[in-house]
Design brief:
four-stranded parallel β-sheet
Length: about 500
Protein backbone atom coordinates (compact mmCIF):
# COMPACT_ATOMS: atom_id res chain seq x y z
CA UNK A 1 0.00 0.00 0.00
CA UNK A 2 1.26 3.49 -0.78
CA UNK A 3 1.72 5.46 2.39
CA UNK A 4 1.25 9.02 0.96
CA UNK A 5 1.71 12.16 3.00
CA UNK A 6 -1.41 11.24 4.92
CA UNK A 7 0.34 8.47 6.87
CA UNK A 8 3.93 9.72 7.17
CA UNK A 9 5.75 11.06 10.23
CA UNK A 10 5.18 8.19 12.62
CA UNK A 11 6.34 9.84 15.83
CA UNK A 12 5.77 13.54 15.23
CA UNK A 13 3.23 16.08 16.39
CA UNK A 14 2.81 15.97 20.17
CA UNK A 15 -0.46 17.22 21.60
CA UNK A 16 -0.45 21.00 21.93
CA UNK A 17 -1.49 20.98 25.56
CA UNK A 18 -1.04 18.34 28.25
CA UNK A 19 -4.72 18.75 28.98
CA UNK A 20 -5.36 17.84 25.33
CA UNK A 21 -7.79 20.71 24.90
CA UNK A 22 -7.53 22.39 21.51
CA UNK A 23 -6.30 25.98 21.60
CA UNK A 24 -8.70 27.15 18.95
CA UNK A 25 -12.42 27.48 19.53
CA UNK A 26 -14.31 26.09 16.54
CA UNK A 27 -18.08 26.32 16.72
CA UNK A 28 -18.61 22.63 15.95
CA UNK A 29 -16.77 19.36 15.52
CA UNK A 30 -17.55 19.58 11.80
CA UNK A 31 -15.71 22.90 11.55
CA UNK A 32 -12.82 21.56 13.63
CA UNK A 33 -12.32 18.62 11.26
CA UNK A 34 -12.77 20.45 7.99
CA UNK A 35 -11.28 23.91 8.50
CA UNK A 36 -9.39 24.43 11.78
CA UNK A 37 -5.81 23.49 10.95
CA UNK A 38 -4.65 24.01 14.54
CA UNK A 39 -7.21 21.64 15.99
CA UNK A 40 -6.43 18.05 17.02
CA UNK A 41 -9.39 16.82 14.96
CA UNK A 42 -8.43 18.58 11.71
CA UNK A 43 -7.88 16.39 8.66
CA UNK A 44 -6.40 17.67 5.41
CA UNK A 45 -8.52 15.66 3.02
CA UNK A 46 -6.44 16.78 0.03
CA UNK A 47 -3.90 14.20 1.21
CA UNK A 48 -6.43 11.36 1.40
CA UNK A 49 -5.19 8.31 -0.56
CA UNK A 50 -6.42 8.23 -4.14
CA UNK A 51 -6.47 4.42 -4.37
CA UNK A 52 -9.26 3.39 -2.01
CA UNK A 53 -9.32 -0.31 -2.87
CA UNK A 54 -6.37 -1.35 -0.69
CA UNK A 55 -7.63 0.57 2.35
CA UNK A 56 -9.43 -1.17 5.25
CA UNK A 57 -13.15 -0.93 5.94
CA UNK A 58 -14.06 1.19 8.95
CA UNK A 59 -16.61 0.00 11.50
CA UNK A 60 -17.71 1.82 14.62
CA UNK A 61 -20.12 1.24 17.48
CA UNK A 62 -20.82 2.72 20.87
CA UNK A 63 -19.09 -0.27 22.46
CA UNK A 64 -17.97 -3.77 21.57
CA UNK A 65 -21.35 -4.88 20.23
CA UNK A 66 -20.29 -3.92 16.73
CA UNK A 67 -17.91 -6.86 16.80
CA UNK A 68 -20.97 -9.06 16.29
CA UNK A 69 -21.58 -7.16 13.04
CA UNK A 70 -17.95 -7.61 12.06
CA UNK A 71 -18.32 -11.34 12.73
CA UNK A 72 -21.01 -11.60 10.05
CA UNK A 73 -19.00 -9.42 7.67
CA UNK A 74 -15.84 -11.54 7.86
CA UNK A 75 -17.96 -14.64 7.19
CA UNK A 76 -19.13 -13.21 3.84
CA UNK A 77 -17.36 -15.08 1.06
CA UNK A 78 -16.86 -11.95 -1.03
CA UNK A 79 -15.13 -10.07 1.80
CA UNK A 80 -12.50 -12.66 2.77
CA UNK A 81 -9.60 -10.52 1.48
CA UNK A 82 -10.64 -7.35 3.28
CA UNK A 83 -9.10 -5.83 6.40
CA UNK A 84 -10.95 -3.73 8.96
CA UNK A 85 -10.46 -0.90 11.42
CA UNK A 86 -12.87 -1.14 14.35
CA UNK A 87 -13.62 1.55 16.94
CA UNK A 88 -15.78 0.99 20.02
CA UNK A 89 -16.64 4.24 21.82
CA UNK A 90 -16.67 2.46 25.15
CA UNK A 91 -16.04 5.60 27.22
CA UNK A 92 -19.17 7.37 25.94
CA UNK A 93 -21.55 4.41 25.71
CA UNK A 94 -24.43 3.69 25.92
CA UNK A 95 -25.45 5.99 23.09
CA UNK A 96 -29.11 5.22 23.73
CA UNK A 97 -29.13 7.29 26.92
CA UNK A 98 -28.29 10.62 25.25
CA UNK A 99 -31.84 10.87 23.95
CA UNK A 100 -33.14 9.93 27.40
CA UNK A 101 -31.15 12.85 28.83
CA UNK A 102 -32.24 15.23 26.01
CA UNK A 103 -28.68 15.66 24.76
CA UNK A 104 -28.70 14.30 21.21
CA UNK A 105 -26.47 17.17 19.92
CA UNK A 106 -23.65 15.73 22.05
CA UNK A 107 -24.42 12.27 20.68
CA UNK A 108 -24.06 13.55 17.10
CA UNK A 109 -20.75 15.15 18.07
CA UNK A 110 -19.51 11.80 19.40
CA UNK A 111 -20.61 10.13 16.17
CA UNK A 112 -18.67 12.62 14.02
CA UNK A 113 -15.60 12.10 16.21
CA UNK A 114 -15.92 8.35 15.57
CA UNK A 115 -15.98 9.06 11.83
CA UNK A 116 -13.02 11.45 12.17
CA UNK A 117 -11.02 8.68 13.82
CA UNK A 118 -11.76 6.22 11.02
CA UNK A 119 -10.96 8.75 8.28
CA UNK A 120 -7.88 10.04 10.08
CA UNK A 121 -4.56 8.57 11.16
CA UNK A 122 -4.19 9.55 14.83
CA UNK A 123 -4.38 7.39 17.92
CA UNK A 124 -2.67 7.08 21.29
CA UNK A 125 -0.79 4.02 22.42
CA UNK A 126 -2.13 4.44 25.98
CA UNK A 127 -3.66 6.97 28.32
CA UNK A 128 -0.25 7.97 29.67
CA UNK A 129 1.28 8.68 26.25
CA UNK A 130 2.29 12.31 25.86
CA UNK A 131 2.26 12.16 22.06
CA UNK A 132 -0.11 10.63 19.56
CA UNK A 133 0.93 8.42 16.67
CA UNK A 134 -0.05 8.88 13.03
CA UNK A 135 0.42 5.51 11.39
CA UNK A 136 -3.21 4.33 11.29
CA UNK A 137 -4.61 3.86 7.80
CA UNK A 138 -7.71 5.77 6.67
CA UNK A 139 -10.67 3.74 5.38
CA UNK A 140 -12.52 3.16 2.11
CA UNK A 141 -16.05 2.57 3.48
CA UNK A 142 -17.80 2.99 6.82
CA UNK A 143 -20.25 0.64 8.51
CA UNK A 144 -22.23 2.19 11.36
CA UNK A 145 -22.54 -0.89 13.54
CA UNK A 146 -24.83 0.90 15.98
CA UNK A 147 -28.56 1.37 15.57
CA UNK A 148 -28.67 4.53 17.69
CA UNK A 149 -25.80 6.10 15.75
CA UNK A 150 -27.52 5.16 12.50
CA UNK A 151 -30.80 6.69 13.66
CA UNK A 152 -29.26 10.00 14.73
CA UNK A 153 -26.18 10.28 12.53
CA UNK A 154 -26.49 8.53 9.14
CA UNK A 155 -27.59 11.57 7.14
CA UNK A 156 -25.15 13.82 9.01
CA UNK A 157 -22.25 11.48 8.27
CA UNK A 158 -23.10 11.22 4.58
CA UNK A 159 -23.32 15.00 4.23
CA UNK A 160 -20.07 15.47 6.13
CA UNK A 161 -18.21 13.02 3.89
CA UNK A 162 -19.60 14.76 0.82
CA UNK A 163 -18.48 18.14 2.18
CA UNK A 164 -15.02 16.66 2.76
CA UNK A 165 -14.84 15.83 -0.93
CA UNK A 166 -14.66 12.07 -0.41
CA UNK A 167 -16.54 9.33 -2.24
CA UNK A 168 -16.89 6.91 0.65
CA UNK A 169 -19.95 4.74 1.15
CA UNK A 170 -21.69 4.69 4.54
CA UNK A 171 -23.87 1.72 5.50
CA UNK A 172 -26.16 1.74 8.53
CA UNK A 173 -27.90 -1.14 10.23
CA UNK A 174 -31.49 0.14 10.38
CA UNK A 175 -32.36 -0.35 6.71
CA UNK A 176 -30.92 -3.85 6.97
CA UNK A 177 -32.94 -4.64 10.10
CA UNK A 178 -36.15 -3.35 8.54
CA UNK A 179 -35.67 -5.56 5.48
CA UNK A 180 -34.94 -8.60 7.62
CA UNK A 181 -38.06 -7.99 9.71
CA UNK A 182 -40.27 -9.17 6.84
CA UNK A 183 -38.46 -12.47 6.35
CA UNK A 184 -41.37 -14.35 7.95
CA UNK A 185 -44.29 -12.65 6.16
CA UNK A 186 -46.18 -13.67 3.04
CA UNK A 187 -47.43 -10.80 0.82
CA UNK A 188 -50.87 -10.53 2.45
CA UNK A 189 -50.10 -11.90 5.93
CA UNK A 190 -50.89 -9.99 9.12
CA UNK A 191 -48.81 -10.22 12.26
CA UNK A 192 -46.63 -8.02 14.40
CA UNK A 193 -42.96 -7.14 14.50
CA UNK A 194 -41.00 -6.45 17.66
CA UNK A 195 -37.95 -4.20 17.74
CA UNK A 196 -35.61 -4.62 20.72
CA UNK A 197 -33.32 -1.59 20.79
CA UNK A 198 -31.67 1.00 22.98
CA UNK A 199 -33.77 3.78 24.45
CA UNK A 200 -32.28 6.24 21.98
CA UNK A 201 -33.14 4.12 18.95
CA UNK A 202 -36.69 3.65 20.24
CA UNK A 203 -37.12 7.39 20.83
CA UNK A 204 -35.85 8.21 17.35
CA UNK A 205 -38.77 6.37 15.73
CA UNK A 206 -36.40 5.26 12.97
CA UNK A 207 -37.37 1.59 12.97
CA UNK A 208 -41.17 1.98 12.72
CA UNK A 209 -40.71 4.58 9.98
CA UNK A 210 -38.28 2.41 8.01
CA UNK A 211 -40.36 -0.76 8.47
CA UNK A 212 -43.44 1.11 7.20
CA UNK A 213 -41.45 2.35 4.21
CA UNK A 214 -40.26 -1.19 3.35
CA UNK A 215 -43.79 -2.59 3.78
CA UNK A 216 -45.26 -0.01 1.38
CA UNK A 217 -42.35 -0.29 -1.06
CA UNK A 218 -42.72 -4.05 -1.29
CA UNK A 219 -46.52 -3.94 -1.51
CA UNK A 220 -47.26 -6.03 1.58
CA UNK A 221 -50.99 -5.93 2.24
CA UNK A 222 -51.30 -7.31 5.78
CA UNK A 223 -51.79 -5.39 9.02
CA UNK A 224 -48.34 -5.30 10.63
CA UNK A 225 -48.00 -3.19 13.78
CA UNK A 226 -44.54 -2.58 15.23
CA UNK A 227 -43.89 -2.93 18.96
CA UNK A 228 -40.69 -1.41 20.32
CA UNK A 229 -38.96 -2.29 23.58
CA UNK A 230 -36.11 -0.23 24.97
CA UNK A 231 -33.74 -2.87 26.37
CA UNK A 232 -32.15 -0.57 28.94
CA UNK A 233 -29.37 -2.45 30.70
CA UNK A 234 -28.75 -5.24 28.17
CA UNK A 235 -25.98 -3.58 26.14
CA UNK A 236 -24.61 -1.90 29.25
CA UNK A 237 -24.35 -5.22 31.09
CA UNK A 238 -22.71 -6.86 28.07
CA UNK A 239 -20.05 -4.13 28.15
CA UNK A 240 -19.74 -4.45 31.95
CA UNK A 241 -20.97 -0.92 32.78
CA UNK A 242 -21.01 -0.66 36.57
CA UNK A 243 -24.31 1.26 36.74
CA UNK A 244 -26.03 -1.88 35.47
CA UNK A 245 -23.90 -4.85 36.51
CA UNK A 246 -21.39 -5.44 39.26
CA UNK A 247 -20.03 -8.97 39.57
CA UNK A 248 -18.12 -8.13 42.76
CA UNK A 249 -21.11 -7.45 44.98
CA UNK A 250 -23.66 -9.78 46.57
CA UNK A 251 -26.32 -7.31 47.63
CA UNK A 252 -28.18 -4.20 46.40
CA UNK A 253 -25.88 -1.24 45.83
CA UNK A 254 -25.83 2.50 45.32
CA UNK A 255 -25.60 3.84 41.78
CA UNK A 256 -27.67 1.07 40.15
CA UNK A 257 -29.68 2.41 37.18
CA UNK A 258 -31.48 -0.67 35.87
CA UNK A 259 -35.10 -1.77 36.34
CA UNK A 260 -36.42 -2.06 39.91
CA UNK A 261 -39.68 -2.35 41.86
CA UNK A 262 -39.58 1.44 42.31
CA UNK A 263 -39.06 2.05 38.60
CA UNK A 264 -41.74 3.58 36.43
CA UNK A 265 -43.22 2.49 33.12
CA UNK A 266 -41.07 -0.05 31.34
CA UNK A 267 -38.37 0.20 34.01
CA UNK A 268 -40.56 -1.28 36.72
CA UNK A 269 -40.08 -4.85 37.92
CA UNK A 270 -43.67 -5.92 38.52
CA UNK A 271 -43.59 -8.44 41.36
CA UNK A 272 -47.00 -9.70 40.22
CA UNK A 273 -45.16 -11.06 37.16
CA UNK A 274 -42.40 -12.68 39.20
CA UNK A 275 -43.02 -16.21 37.92
CA UNK A 276 -43.16 -15.00 34.30
CA UNK A 277 -39.77 -13.33 34.51
CA UNK A 278 -38.25 -16.63 35.66
CA UNK A 279 -35.18 -14.77 36.90
CA UNK A 280 -32.04 -16.67 37.83
CA UNK A 281 -31.51 -15.63 41.46
CA UNK A 282 -28.36 -17.69 42.08
CA UNK A 283 -24.72 -16.60 42.16
CA UNK A 284 -25.43 -12.89 42.26
CA UNK A 285 -27.47 -12.78 39.02
CA UNK A 286 -30.15 -10.91 41.02
CA UNK A 287 -29.30 -8.66 43.93
CA UNK A 288 -31.96 -8.39 46.61
CA UNK A 289 -32.76 -8.25 50.28
CA UNK A 290 -34.90 -10.68 52.23
CA UNK A 291 -35.61 -14.33 51.57
CA UNK A 292 -35.34 -15.75 48.01
CA UNK A 293 -39.02 -16.70 48.25
CA UNK A 294 -39.98 -13.11 49.14
CA UNK A 295 -37.21 -10.83 47.86
CA UNK A 296 -37.33 -7.05 47.84
CA UNK A 297 -35.09 -4.15 46.77
CA UNK A 298 -34.48 -6.05 43.54
CA UNK A 299 -31.60 -5.24 41.19
CA UNK A 300 -30.86 -7.14 37.97
CA UNK A 301 -27.24 -8.25 37.78
CA UNK A 302 -26.84 -10.48 34.71
CA UNK A 303 -27.33 -10.10 30.96
CA UNK A 304 -29.71 -13.07 30.92
CA UNK A 305 -31.97 -11.54 33.56
CA UNK A 306 -32.07 -8.21 31.70
CA UNK A 307 -33.18 -10.11 28.60
CA UNK A 308 -35.88 -11.97 30.57
CA UNK A 309 -37.19 -8.72 32.04
CA UNK A 310 -37.44 -6.92 28.71
CA UNK A 311 -39.00 -9.83 26.82
CA UNK A 312 -41.71 -10.23 29.45
CA UNK A 313 -42.33 -6.47 29.39
CA UNK A 314 -42.59 -6.59 25.58
CA UNK A 315 -44.98 -9.57 25.53
CA UNK A 316 -47.16 -8.03 28.24
CA UNK A 317 -47.47 -4.97 26.01
CA UNK A 318 -48.46 -7.13 23.04
CA UNK A 319 -50.95 -9.33 24.93
CA UNK A 320 -52.70 -6.26 26.31
CA UNK A 321 -53.24 -4.82 22.82
CA UNK A 322 -56.71 -5.60 21.49
CA UNK A 323 -56.94 -7.58 18.24
CA UNK A 324 -53.21 -8.07 17.84
CA UNK A 325 -51.91 -10.87 15.62
CA UNK A 326 -49.04 -13.14 16.76
CA UNK A 327 -45.47 -11.93 16.86
CA UNK A 328 -43.77 -13.07 13.63
CA UNK A 329 -40.31 -11.54 13.93
CA UNK A 330 -38.08 -9.97 16.55
CA UNK A 331 -35.39 -7.57 15.36
CA UNK A 332 -32.29 -7.43 17.56
CA UNK A 333 -31.86 -3.72 16.89
CA UNK A 334 -28.73 -3.25 18.95
CA UNK A 335 -25.45 -4.76 17.81
CA UNK A 336 -24.73 -6.01 21.33
CA UNK A 337 -27.79 -8.26 21.35
CA UNK A 338 -26.73 -10.88 18.75
CA UNK A 339 -24.04 -12.04 21.19
CA UNK A 340 -26.98 -13.49 23.13
CA UNK A 341 -29.22 -14.67 20.28
CA UNK A 342 -29.49 -18.13 21.87
CA UNK A 343 -30.64 -16.55 25.14
CA UNK A 344 -33.35 -14.52 23.36
CA UNK A 345 -34.50 -17.61 21.46
CA UNK A 346 -34.56 -19.83 24.55
CA UNK A 347 -36.51 -17.29 26.61
CA UNK A 348 -39.12 -16.79 23.87
CA UNK A 349 -39.53 -20.58 23.54
CA UNK A 350 -39.91 -20.87 27.32
CA UNK A 351 -42.53 -18.10 27.32
CA UNK A 352 -44.50 -19.80 24.55
CA UNK A 353 -44.76 -22.93 26.69
CA UNK A 354 -45.30 -21.12 29.99
CA UNK A 355 -48.70 -21.71 31.61
CA UNK A 356 -50.61 -20.61 34.68
CA UNK A 357 -53.51 -22.73 35.91
CA UNK A 358 -53.54 -24.62 32.62
CA UNK A 359 -53.59 -21.48 30.45
CA UNK A 360 -50.76 -20.67 28.06
CA UNK A 361 -50.23 -17.00 28.83
CA UNK A 362 -48.12 -16.01 25.82
CA UNK A 363 -48.65 -18.78 23.24
CA UNK A 364 -51.44 -16.95 21.34
CA UNK A 365 -49.07 -14.01 20.87
CA UNK A 366 -45.90 -15.80 19.70
CA UNK A 367 -45.86 -17.38 16.24
CA UNK A 368 -44.74 -20.99 16.18
CA UNK A 369 -42.22 -20.14 13.45
CA UNK A 370 -41.07 -16.84 14.97
CA UNK A 371 -37.75 -15.61 13.57
CA UNK A 372 -35.05 -13.56 15.29
CA UNK A 373 -33.47 -11.03 12.94
CA UNK A 374 -29.80 -10.03 13.13
CA UNK A 375 -29.42 -7.01 10.79
CA UNK A 376 -25.69 -7.69 10.41
CA UNK A 377 -26.25 -10.54 7.96
CA UNK A 378 -27.98 -8.09 5.61
CA UNK A 379 -25.31 -5.43 6.22
CA UNK A 380 -22.57 -7.82 5.06
CA UNK A 381 -24.34 -8.30 1.73
CA UNK A 382 -24.92 -4.57 1.30
CA UNK A 383 -21.26 -3.84 2.01
CA UNK A 384 -20.11 -6.43 -0.53
CA UNK A 385 -22.42 -5.04 -3.22
CA UNK A 386 -21.20 -1.49 -2.56
CA UNK A 387 -17.53 -2.45 -2.88
CA UNK A 388 -18.23 -4.55 -5.95
CA UNK A 389 -20.13 -1.78 -7.74
CA UNK A 390 -17.47 0.81 -6.89
CA UNK A 391 -14.63 -1.56 -7.88
CA UNK A 392 -13.20 -1.28 -4.37
CA UNK A 393 -12.71 -4.92 -3.43
CA UNK A 394 -9.16 -5.41 -2.19
CA UNK A 395 -6.85 -6.77 -4.89
CA UNK A 396 -3.65 -6.36 -2.86
CA UNK A 397 -2.16 -8.46 -0.11
CA UNK A 398 -4.45 -8.55 2.91
CA UNK A 399 -3.22 -6.51 5.88
CA UNK A 400 -3.92 -7.04 9.58
CA UNK A 401 -7.16 -5.61 10.95
CA UNK A 402 -6.95 -3.06 13.77
CA UNK A 403 -9.07 -2.63 16.90
CA UNK A 404 -9.45 0.44 19.09
CA UNK A 405 -11.61 1.63 21.97
CA UNK A 406 -12.07 4.99 23.62
CA UNK A 407 -11.01 5.58 27.22
CA UNK A 408 -11.47 8.73 29.33
CA UNK A 409 -8.67 11.19 28.68
CA UNK A 410 -7.13 11.69 32.11
CA UNK A 411 -4.79 14.36 30.72
CA UNK A 412 -7.82 16.56 30.14
CA UNK A 413 -8.32 18.18 33.55
CA UNK A 414 -11.94 18.99 32.74
CA UNK A 415 -13.12 15.38 32.79
CA UNK A 416 -14.95 14.11 35.88
CA UNK A 417 -14.42 10.46 36.74
CA UNK A 418 -15.80 7.82 39.04
CA UNK A 419 -13.53 5.82 41.33
CA UNK A 420 -13.27 3.09 38.69
CA UNK A 421 -11.90 5.56 36.11
CA UNK A 422 -15.07 5.90 34.01
CA UNK A 423 -17.03 9.10 33.43
CA UNK A 424 -19.64 9.92 36.04
CA UNK A 425 -23.15 9.62 34.66
CA UNK A 426 -23.78 13.33 35.17
CA UNK A 427 -20.61 14.30 33.32
CA UNK A 428 -21.08 11.78 30.52
CA UNK A 429 -24.53 13.02 29.60
CA UNK A 430 -24.31 16.60 30.90
CA UNK A 431 -21.53 17.91 28.64
CA UNK A 432 -22.55 20.33 25.90
CA UNK A 433 -21.91 19.92 22.19
CA UNK A 434 -19.61 22.54 20.72
CA UNK A 435 -17.04 22.47 23.51
CA UNK A 436 -14.49 20.80 21.26
CA UNK A 437 -12.13 18.84 23.49
CA UNK A 438 -10.45 15.48 23.61
CA UNK A 439 -12.75 13.99 26.22
CA UNK A 440 -11.46 10.55 25.26
CA UNK A 441 -8.46 8.88 23.70
CA UNK A 442 -8.63 6.20 21.04
CA UNK A 443 -6.25 3.42 22.06
CA UNK A 444 -5.60 -0.13 20.81
CA UNK A 445 -7.48 -3.07 22.30
CA UNK A 446 -5.55 -4.55 25.21
CA UNK A 447 -6.18 -6.39 28.45
CA UNK A 448 -5.53 -3.15 30.33
CA UNK A 449 -8.56 -1.40 28.78
CA UNK A 450 -11.02 -4.29 28.34
CA UNK A 451 -12.50 -6.37 31.20
CA UNK A 452 -11.40 -9.99 31.30
CA UNK A 453 -15.03 -11.18 31.24
CA UNK A 454 -15.55 -9.27 27.99
CA UNK A 455 -12.49 -10.85 26.37
CA UNK A 456 -13.62 -14.33 27.41
CA UNK A 457 -17.05 -13.64 25.91
CA UNK A 458 -15.52 -12.51 22.62
CA UNK A 459 -13.31 -15.60 22.48
CA UNK A 460 -16.36 -17.81 23.00
CA UNK A 461 -18.97 -16.01 20.87
CA UNK A 462 -17.03 -14.48 17.96
CA UNK A 463 -13.88 -16.64 17.68
CA UNK A 464 -13.06 -15.42 14.17
CA UNK A 465 -13.04 -11.80 15.31
CA UNK A 466 -11.19 -12.75 18.46
CA UNK A 467 -8.42 -14.29 16.34
CA UNK A 468 -8.10 -11.00 14.45
CA UNK A 469 -7.86 -9.13 17.77
CA UNK A 470 -5.12 -11.47 19.01
CA UNK A 471 -3.22 -11.01 15.74
CA UNK A 472 -3.53 -7.23 16.05
CA UNK A 473 -2.32 -7.27 19.64
CA UNK A 474 0.69 -9.36 18.65
CA UNK A 475 1.58 -7.05 15.75
CA UNK A 476 0.92 -3.93 17.81
CA UNK A 477 3.13 -5.06 20.70
CA UNK A 478 5.89 -6.08 18.29
CA UNK A 479 5.70 -2.70 16.55
CA UNK A 480 5.81 -0.81 19.83
CA UNK A 481 8.91 -2.79 20.86
CA UNK A 482 10.66 -1.86 17.61
CA UNK A 483 9.69 1.78 18.04
CA UNK A 484 11.14 1.77 21.53
CA UNK A 485 14.37 0.21 20.24
CA UNK A 486 14.64 2.95 17.62
CA UNK A 487 14.08 5.64 20.25
CA UNK A 488 16.83 4.20 22.44
CA UNK A 489 19.23 4.15 19.48
CA UNK A 490 18.51 7.80 18.69
CA UNK A 491 19.17 8.79 22.26
Amino acid sequence: MKTSNFRKNLFLFPALLLTCISCSKPDSIREAILTDKDNFYYIDFKDYPSDYSSLPIGIFDSGTGGLSTLDDIIDHEGLKNESFTFLGDLANMPYGSYALENNTPLLVEHILKDVQFLLGNKYYQSNVSRNYLQDKSPVKAIVIACNTATAYGLDTIRKFISDAGLDIGVIGVIDAGAQGAFGNFSPDESGCIAVLATDGTVRSGAYPATITYVKNRDGLAGTIPVFQQAGIGIAEAIDEKSEFIDRTTKGPRQGYMGPSEKGTGEMKIDTALWARYDFDIKNGAMLFEGDPANPYNLQINSVENYISFHLVTLLEKIRNTAGVQPLNSVVLACTHYPFFTDTFRAKLAWMRDYSEKGEFIYRPFISEDLIIVNPATVVAGQLYQHLLQKDLLNRSEKTASEFYVTIPNTRNKNVILRDDGSFTYEYKYGRQAGEIQEYVRCVPFSRSVLPEDMLLRLEDQVPGVYDLIVQFNHENNKTQYLKEEERIKRE
